[in-house]
Write the structure tokens for this entry.
Amino acid sequence: MDALIDLSLRAVFLALLHPFTRGLLLVLVALYGGGSGWPGWGAGLCGMLGVGFWLAPLWRRWRDRRR
């Protein structure tokens, strides 16, 4: 059981390294939080952070192309 917990934590930390998977993880946490009765601000904050991690690189790329 300890090995399973260790592998799960390593997978989450590796997912947090890349912006796309970080955003996906935060959006999934927001969906889980919304369904399990978290306060609205908590689930909303996770969702906004997740979408922000997706939109920030796209916005930067768009801004650099306009120059």
